[in-house]
Amino acid sequence: GGGGRPPAAMERAVVRCVPSEPKLSLRFVLPDGSIRHMQRDQAEPLGRALARIATNAAKGHGKAGKKSKKARAEDGAEGEAAVPAVRLFSRDGAAVAEEVPNAAAWQDGAVLHIGDAQYRVERNPPALTELRLPRSLLAGFPVCPKVSAEFAVPQHCLFRWFREQRPADGGDAAEEAWVETAAAERVFTPSNALVGLRLKLRCTPGDGEQRYGPAREVESSGPVEAGPGACTFDARHLYTKKVCGHGSVRAVSYNILADTYAQTEFSRTVLYPYCAPYALEIDYRQNLLKKELAGYSADLICLQEVDKSVFVDSLAPALDAFGLEGLFRIKEKQHEGLATFYRRDKFSLLGQHDIAFSEALLSEPLHKELCEQLAKYPLVQEKVLQRSSVLQVSVLQSTTNPSRKLCVANTHLYWHPKGGNIRLIQIAVAMSHIKHVACDLYPSIPVIFCGDFNSTPSSGTYSFISSGGIAEDHEDWVSNGEEERCSMSLSHPFKLLSACGEPAYTNYVGGFHGCLDYIFIDRNALEVEQVIPLPSHEEITTHQALPSVSHPSDHIALICDLKWK
């Protein structure tokens, strides 16, 4: 070798060792450039692993020089049995005893000697497992990468953004075609100057303790495109520039229109014929939606009609970058469901108590009485049990004042215009379940109940939630005619108030507009500090109805600031 000079930078031996897996893996590169990958039992004594490394390294040398038999014979025994001495030294320079189990022996910073070669052990270094950019990039809209990592957290990763070089920028075509931008944040908002250019992101995984792993790069599949200019939510953002103080909670409820429903032939031709087809595409709408939600600086966001892939690949990574943790509940038999996001530095999650209405009705003792009543009306019972509607219930605790807890419920009730009786049964199940959580499991904690209730303020469902009861002669029990009447009187113990009042409409499509969405709050514990105004009628109807190039859903987000009494 090189006269015993220490290597400029010691080679690395990367060890991956996690409690949930029986084996640890070891990866290093031999001096001849061949890569060695080994899996050893975590409980195996170190001596056995070192012996295996020695024979493995020797095997490599034999192969490396593909010599003839004659040449090998001339080398004598030396060529055959060049098994190097292999030892492991701990950080303080002491040799690690051979009986120490692998899991304890291979510590970060230890040094592995294989003959003359030395390797610094890196145990569980930060590593990126996924790095993706959204398919569609719009100028003026935040680009939020999806970052998945092991032994690292996105908050502590390093980000460097590059843009494609324009042909006019000069420079040799063979030269690097990327120009670094000034941006070094996780979220990048391209300016109009970048329209027509692709982006590249270089991400280095970090664990927050000054350890960094190998960087990865990802290039956008297409160029930055021009955005739509003004959106319906721009004026609303003027009210929500900052996160509100610790004594307040900003809540948002929003049906974001599932891709499952937006992209059907029926939607394009019958429901939303006025909407430009490109504005119904999920990638376009997600750009608008992420900008809209990020700009509300909310503490709680309850969403309905969330496609599973939209949650996993788009919303959860984006809102994570803005400080929000997300929870998802799928509707059985469907590809969409509910999502609840909460601000991480304001709340921690104490528990999740989600249910599917039909399942809970049949199996939980809590609803036994209602179930028995419903059995008298087989037609209605069958309809209720066919629905896949769910209720998402999350119990949160304030990080600054642990005595403050919240029961946050989120739902999307049956949609059919004549389904008032079905919705009454669903809301009865919901209120019983919320009572169980907010009165029994966590005695007397305040309730915030968000959702698309598919019920106008004149409906039985709205009346039941607000007044605490419904009579058996209410007209909604016969919403679908006499043969589907199912009269019962129901009650619940909460004093709930619609925090945003009763707007003229929260859903505005070609053939219908009405108020269907609400944020109900516990009047005893919470009060309304401010309601963020809805967009003007003029803004909503600029492109006839919703959705449009400047509004991503057929519903409008409700936003209010609440404070503890």
TrEMBL record:
Biological source species? Promerops cafer
Q: Which residues lie within the region annotated Disordered?
A: 57-78
Where does the Endonuclease/exonuclease/phosphatase domain lie? 253-555
Annotated 2',5'-phosphodiesterase 12-like N-terminal domain ranges read 125-225
GO CC entries: mitochondrial matrix
> Which Pfam families does the UniProt record give?
Exo_endo_phos, PDE12-like_N
An example of a GO molecular function for this protein is: poly(A)-specific ribonuclease activity
Q: Is Hydrolase given among the entry's keywords?
A: yes
Protein name (database record): 2',5'-phosphodiesterase 12
Q: Does the keyword Nucleus apply?
A: no
Q: Which PANTHER family match?
A: 2',5'-PHOSPHODIESTERASE 12, CARBON CATABOLITE REPRESSOR PROTEIN 4
Cofactors that this protein relies on: Mg(2+)
Keywords, in A-Z order: Exonuclease, Hydrolase, Magnesium, Metal-binding, Mitochondrion, mRNA processing, Nuclease, Phosphoprotein, Transit peptide
Q: Which domain of life is it from?
A: Eukaryota
Biased composition, Basic residues: where in the chain? 60-70
UniProt lists the family membership as follows: Belongs to the CCR4/nocturin family.
Which SUPFAM superfamilies does this chain map to? Answer: DNase I-like
Provide one Gene Ontology biological process annotation: mRNA processing
Q: What is the lineage of its organism?
A: Eukaryota, Metazoa, Chordata, Craniata, Vertebrata
Any idea where this protein resides? Mitochondrion matrix
